[in-house]
Amino acid sequence: MAEQLRMVAVHAHPDDESSKGAATMARYVAEGHEVMVVSCTGGERGSILNPSFEPADLAAHPAQMSAVRRQEMARAAQILGVQHRWLGYVDSGLPEGDPKPPLPDGCFAAVPLEASTRDLVRVFREFRPHVVVTYDEKGGYPHPDHIRCHEVSVAAFDAAGDPERFPDAGVPWQPLKLYYSHGFSRKRMQLMHDALLAAGEESPYGEWLAKWDPSLPDIMERVTTQVQCAEYFPVRDDALRAHATQIDPASRWFAVSHAVLAELWPTEEYELARSLVDTTLPEDDLFSGVRERVHI
User: Fold this and answer.
1) Fewer CB atoms inside 10 A, N or C side of the chain?
2) Distance (Å, rounded) from C-alpha 16 to C-alpha 37?
3) At 215, is the secondary structure helix, strand, or coil?
């Protein structure tokens, strides 16, 4: 019998898994593969981003905020059908000001990289993923937890198969592919904007597009892999809505219908960063090359 394929998606905060690659994960779960989400932090320092959420002052009470976000994450994981693991670190918050204040003591981005790498290596060796997905070197956006999530994911990918690294963290296991997830493409946003205007509807993307620096390259230039997953966009949206503190159900996340999305942009995008198997670019499957290696 062929071995079951396994994938881990490493994210900074609860809700990141539902806004980045959720439909891909739901597709692979539906196909019978094992998918695990690792949340590096509990999102304790997050703000209430949904204006209709009550109580609105929940963010002022970190312990309560943490408990609610854990409940939200459990619901989202159930909707997506994924396994879930907390890495156990505290949200660093998003520093604001000029100069920016120092990071809070003991937060994820301030803890030595070696410590968080050991913890993620332990997860990798226990779950034994063939594919690891995380953020690129910019974190998707410059939140300190997202950047550290990238750093720890790459470090753990390299260390998990090395018996000399973290010998107390389980039996060595080498993942075969490492991907960076990409979502904020100007090309995609322009397509959605134009489709809404053509239908006589208001577009929430106009302001973003107007402020977009035309000298910046589109992230699509880095994309190597587009996974067809339009069938699972409704699952993704349900998982997003499960994070009620973070997601406004009237926000731009839901501005374009599933039918229009399926027609114009039925994929989620990734960049192949490391591969220990043969594969041909561009890809349409994160397990490309892995299937051939595992299914002997």
Assistant:
1) N
2) 10
3) coil
Beta bridge partners of 90: 107
Q: Are strands 177-182 and 267-275 parallel, antiparallel or unpaired?
A: antiparallel
Q: What 3-state DSSP class applies to 41? A: strand
**Kind and range of the H or E run holding 74:** helix 62-80
DSSP assigned state of 4 = P
Cα distance between residue 181 and residue 270, in whole Å: 4
Residue 92, pLDDT above cutoff 70 = yes
What is the number of alpha carbons within 13 Å of residue 101 lying toward its C-beta? 9
Cβ atoms 160, 172 nearer than 8 A: yes
215 belongs to a structural domain: no
The CATH number that applies at residue 101 is 3.40.50.10320
d(CA 89, CA 41): 5
The tens digit of pLDDT for each residue in 116-166 reads: 999 999 999 999 999 999 999 999 888 999 999 999 999 999 999 999 999
**Residue range 183-201, pLDDT digits in tens:** 889 999 999 999 999 999 9
User: Whose CA is closest to 283, among 273, 293, 258?
Assistant: 273
Token pair 């106009």 in the structure block, residue = 206
Q: What is the span of the domain harbouring residue 80? A: 6-183+222-255+267-294
Q: Is residue 127 part of a domain?
A: yes
Nearest to 290 by CA among 33, 12, 13, 107: 33
Report how far Cα 249 is from the mean position of its chain's Cα atoms. Answer: 20
